[in-house]
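Table 4 source record.
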Amino acid sequence: MTVTSGSKVEVRLPSRLGFEKVAMSTAASMAKLMGFSEDRIEDLKTALAEACINAMEHGNQMNASVPVSVVLSMKPNELEVKVMDNGTGMDTPAPTPDIDRKMSGEEEARGMGMFLIQALVDEAEWVSGTGTDEQSFVRLVIRMNKEN
C-alpha cells in the first residue's frame, strides 16, 4: 500500500486518563500503514502516551472539558506528531533523571516522561504557548529506522 506523504489525522481527546490510548491506537495504525516495524511502533506508542498524559496533567490540569489535540502528519519515512494543550509550557527543560536513585527508591519514580520520550523518538521539541492565544505543544518525529 502506498501512503500519501502529507496525509494528516487529528484527534481531540478529553483530558482524562485512559483517552491517551485512543491517540496511541491511531498513531500505531498510521505507522503500520506506512510500514514501520513493530519495535518502532511500540516506541511511538510509549512516547505518545507520555506526551498525552503530560498534556492532560500539566497542561490542562486534568480538566476533562479542555481537550488535548494530537495531529499526526505522514512524511516520507517518518511520522510527525504534535500533542497540544492549553498550558503555558515549561520555562526550562526537565533535568536528566538519576535512574539509579529512582530505582533504589531514593527519588520519586515520577519525572521520567520527557527523558523517556527523548530516548524513544528521533526528535522531540517542547514549544511553550501563552495559554490563551497559543497552545503549548510537544513535537515528536519518529523515523522508520531509528537514528543513533
